[in-house]
Amino acid sequence: MTRWVLSFDATGTGHCLYTEAVDLPAIGRLELVRASTIEFNGTRQRWEVRGSVNQLLFSDPSRRACLEWEQHHYNQ
Fold first, then answer.
1. Among 10, 28, 52, 65, who pairs with 60 as Cys (CB 3.0-4.6 Å)?
2. Is 2 within a domain?
3. What is the pLDDT of residues 2-33, one digit of tens each?
4. Is residue 13 part of a domain?
């Protein structure tokens, strides 16, 4: 079972990894910002998770491993 974390800061703004498992629009207006991308690196023959300023965060031959890493990393 996937664990989803929704946290709120002092201003009442919520932060989470987007999911359709929770009806987020019912809570309020959404503003989405991409935290990372997962793309295949043909030279290295690996999937790579890159952060918002293009830094390499994680890589693996398996795309699923990258998706799981991303979910764990952003759901803390």
1. 65
2. no
3. 677 888 999 988 888 888 888 999 988 999 88
4. yes
Domain encompassing residue 53: 7-74
Coil, strand or helix at 74: helix
Instruction: Kindly write down the DSSP assignment for every residue of 1-30, as one continuous string.
Output: ------EE-TTS-EE----SSS-HHHHS--
Structure-block tokens of residue 41? 């690196």
pLDDT, tens digit, for every residue of 30-72? 998 888 999 999 999 999 999 989 999 999 999 999 999 998 9
Instruction: State the total domains in the chain.
Output: 1
Of the candidates 63, 29, 20, the one whose C-alpha atom is nearest the C-alpha of residue 4 is: 20
- CB count, 10 Å around CB of 75? 14
